[in-house]
């Protein structure tokens, strides 16, 4: 038997067009007959996939397991040599590339189940219309940076399809009657009801408030959780957590509202918008990954992987409310993972489309490449190139691996996204495709989705750059929270930091805890090396919160103790304001981790640029380093 050939879905592709992957909330609940049928096809197919035995190659369990734990070979001809970090390429140039065939695999397996299992159960007379609906099905994406209408409010939120424990589908006996099934998007449950540890999903290292290590007992989980209460400090893990029940009051509340995300404060749309601004991020290596590269402009500290990391934390939970999405080794067991990463793939594709004429939009040249931290199949220190095999994904039955070059043009694999339809007549001028028209239209759509008019017209731009050591806490993920306001208000605060009124953003490191394989002594050395060498980058724009402090009508009672910023344009004013009011805290499971001042694992710096009519407002050069903003603070960088 050969390897599984990932080909993309061929059905629905025409000479000039490919079917679209759609935003999940616009697709479910279906407003058209086609989407209605697709909803049921998808939910049934995913239900059947999750119910497959965990030792089948094409089971949900095995496909999710590719991402991390249980660190086993998947669809490989030979046994892999070393167990390092598994296959997953995080903090790596290959981050967006590796996840592309991964999404294709998931999408294709679902489609095959529709064809071979779901549709065959339907009455023969109705199969044609279902088959037509299946042909244009593509994996939906969750655009987490687009605020959603929920009742009277507009908020960041998880998709509707992922919320309820039970969900309505059309009965396969007649294709018409509505029945309720266990919602396969709500959580994954082990089909046999055994704990995941039975199939070698391991526990994940964490840290307690006294600095000692503990383990998050994912091996005991029977189902996945989002934001379910888990008590890291107690030996009694709640049954709710172990069973993955998220329909308890607390978690339901969280799933419905995501209050803890504090969406009004965290500049998610703004960060997403900046990813695509011309001049802001000028090369693939800077766009793709948190991994540090010699950057040319301070603006390029922002990157796709960092924005994505925060979403893992958002979905999974924080502090003692830990769910699967929060931890790399088990993240893909939560089915929402695939809609999250489908969106990451969309962002990758949009960036590619916008940068079609950018000479640095790929990484063929050696000076565009970065050394890999090592995975199961990639030797540590080897440069990632467009020819590096994206193991374990094969494009044929003869064990030929995908490479980044293979997936560079996503449309070849049978899908695109709503913003990326170059075949539409509106892009033709005198019957010929007009590239500039197309690019301009993509930019306009992004502006509509993510841009804020206040920031767009702000007199200056300010952001916080963060350089952090990924393995500082042996790879245990940590969060750096940023605040603009009075120090005393922060020190005396005893509630979770996400609720703090002065929060302006955070950086979640989403790392693989080290030493999870004590049986592989080679591993420890590479961790130690990683501690020394691996630097990562992130960025938080703070133009909006600063702007609100310049307004004379600003209500500053809940923040900054009434301290007002005289103007955003004068760098000295901004610097003085931040010197007094910018603070940050590093936390793991709700307790503070001090940043040593002699060898800080977090380096924070602030950059400012005045708006200038002759050039684009955000991005490009011309930013100045506001050294006083971070001078003397632990983790501040002012050299
Ligand atoms: Cu991810």
CATH superfamily of the largest domain: Di-copper center containing domain from catechol oxidase
Are there runs of 5+ residues with pLDDT below 50, and where?
A: none
Rg for CA atoms = 24 Å
CATH class label of the largest domain? Mainly Alpha
What's the number of domains?
A: 2
**Helix-and-strand structural type:** alpha+beta
Quickly count the helices.
18
The count of DSSP E runs of length 2 or more, i.e. the number of strands, is 16
- Give the overall pLDDT as a whole number: 87
Major beta sheet, specifics? 4 strands, antiparallel
Determine the N-to-C terminus distance.
60 Å
> And the CATH topology of the largest domain?
di-copper center containing domain from catechol oxidase
Strand content: 5-15%
Shape: globular
Description:
- The protein has 639 residues and is α+β, with helices and mostly antiparallel strands.
- It has two domains: 1-192 and 280-416, Di-copper center containing domain from catechol oxidase (di-copper center containing domain from catechol oxidase), CATH 1.10.1280; 452-639, Hemocyanin, Chain: A, domain 2 (Sandwich).
- The chain is 29% helix and 12% strand.
- The protein is built from 18 helices and 16 strands.
- Strands 12-9-15-16 form a four-stranded antiparallel sheet. Strands 11-10-13-14 form a four-stranded antiparallel sheet. A two-stranded antiparallel ribbon has the order 1-2.
- β5 and β6 form a beta hairpin.
- α2 packs across α4 (95-121), α4 (95-121) packs across α11 and α10 packs antiparallel against α11.
- The longest helix has 27 residues, at 95-121.
- It is globular.
- The mean pLDDT is 87.
- The structure holds copper (II) ion.
- The site of copper (II) ion has 4 residues, from α10.
